Amino acid sequence: MSATANIDSGLPFHASAEQNEFMSAIDRLRPLSMQHELDLPQLIVCGKQSSGKSSVLEAISHVPFPTGRETTTRFATELVLRNASCESISASIIPAAGTSIADLETLREFDPHVQRLSDFSRILEEASEHLEKLAGSGRLSSHRLRIELSGPQQPHLTLIDMPGLIANATPGIEHFDIQASRKVMNEYMRQPKSIILAVMPASEDLNDHEVFQLAADADPDRVRTLGILTKPDRIEDENLALRIRIIQNETLPLTLGWHVLRNLGPGAERRSADDRDHEEAAFFADPRSGWSTVPLTKKGVATLRARLRNILFRSIVETVPTLAREIELKTQDLEQHLAMLGPSRIDRNEQLTSLDNIAREMSTLIDQACKGTYDEQFFTSALTNGGNNA
Predict the structure, then answer these.
(1) Nearest to 192 by CA among 2, 41, 46
(2) What is the pTM of this model?
């Protein structure tokens, strides 16, 4: 992660068209990454339920995320944001590695008919219902929902929203669910190219927050963890100085540093995304809030978008040589497996011809075995391999 070590400059990150295309090329590989286990750089948004994680995603994407315990998702959601002149939205489910053919067919049936960004919540609901067919009601799924959002206000960025950590068993939530939420988050955190966005309310104690304990286990050198504080307007005055020390990277030093965002307040559903950004900027600029002395590079969603783009792009650049070699080796392996299958047999006649050839070869082998001639390559290979050719 050496390429991401020094990202806290005061300048916003502006991507060129070439950089956008570069990041888009990596994103085209993401649907394949789970099945073929490609190690791609990714931003994973982690936190417990009610940590403000949904508000962070909503601030970045300008899409209203459902909030509340009853809307907690049971699967990871890959959010692909693209800057474009027109708004569009699409969704699909990326199968986990080792998914059976039958389950693959079930996943391919997921085809929500969406046209507007306002359909976002409906996509999550339909995906939950669809994945419950495989995982069971209320169970965490190893498959990933992928939502692609394009629009004039979108940054060129991809994030993965992790299911929130469950702190305690409640009606409808069992001990198994608590352990499963930790297991899924831990698996993503331990991937070497995962950049951990650890979300925590400013009103809570850093030492008691499980997401940072998990992050420390997965990233002991703290080189790929970015801390995000939410709800800065809900802390007591006597705790403000302690929280500012956290943001200044003094309490728990992280290579990628810290950032603070203000969540929407009461009546937020009646406000636009622009109103949200303006209210946040006014809050942080107001000396009475106590946060006006914090550098702009460490507060507010505008600079957070720039930081995340910078981190992700630098990580991608660092990864490309190794990734190219990895893809080349996997391609060679797949080509060898395809060659072993022989030519394609698309229509019925080709399939019947192939079966006829197999039957003829089998007949020849049986005939030679009965006569003891053993002229075919099959017998030579069997003798060479000690009889393990069968």
Answers:
(1) 41
(2) 0.81
